[in-house]
Amino acid sequence: MGGVCRDVRTREVGIQEIHHKVRPYQVELVRRDYVANEGWETFLSYEDPEQDILIGLLRLRRCSPQSFRPELKGGVSIVRELHVYGSVVPVSSRDPSKFQHQGFGMMLMEEAERIAQEEHGSGKLAVISGVGTRNYYRKMGYVLEGPYMVKLLQ
């Protein structure tokens, strides 16, 4: 016993600030690739590896040709999850002492688009998006297609 817990919740920047009064010092993009459910996934994150603090994450998957959703057929990758952690900052507001609305989500999406196009050979990227976040994706050039926000990659 006596191991260190490394799950997402305990590593979140907001939790670290509240409970340990620790802030990230050296933030970098970290990539982890792995096999999941008979497919390939890429886990992208912005974190401070030295202090083990997680600022934001994105899970990217190359869709299977056997996908049952028509929106996900024919060379499509999908963002299954995107989160930027920290204290809540209202939409259209900025607080330089917080991590939300500082561009981490946008940078994660840009890297996901690059990987989808260059490494997956995908012509389209889909995002599982709730109604409340659709305008965020629209600002990046995504449009609604079925239940997904999608962008054609060039």
From TrEMBL:
It is an enzyme of class 2 (transferase). GO terms for molecular function: 4 iron, 4 sulfur cluster binding; metal ion binding; tRNA binding; tRNA uridine(34) acetyltransferase activity. Its cofactor is [4Fe-4S] cluster. Pathway: tRNA modification; 5-methoxycarbonylmethyl-2-thiouridine-tRNA biosynthesis. Keywords: 4Fe-4S, Acyltransferase, Iron, Iron-sulfur, Metal-binding, RNA-binding, S-adenosyl-L-methionine, Transferase, tRNA processing, tRNA-binding. GO terms for cellular component: cytoplasm; elongator holoenzyme complex; nucleus. SUPFAM superfamilies: Acyl-CoA N-acyltransferases (Nat). It catalyses: uridine(34) in tRNA + acetyl-CoA + S-adenosyl-L-methionine + H2O = 5-(carboxymethyl)uridine(34) in tRNA + 5'-deoxyadenosine + L-methionine + CoA + 2 H(+). Its EC number is 2.3.1.311. Residues 3-154 form the N-acetyltransferase domain. It comes from the Eukaryota. The keyword Metal-binding applies. GO terms for biological process: tRNA wobble base 5-methoxycarbonylmethyl-2-thiouridinylation. Belongs to the ELP3 family. This is Elongator complex protein 3.
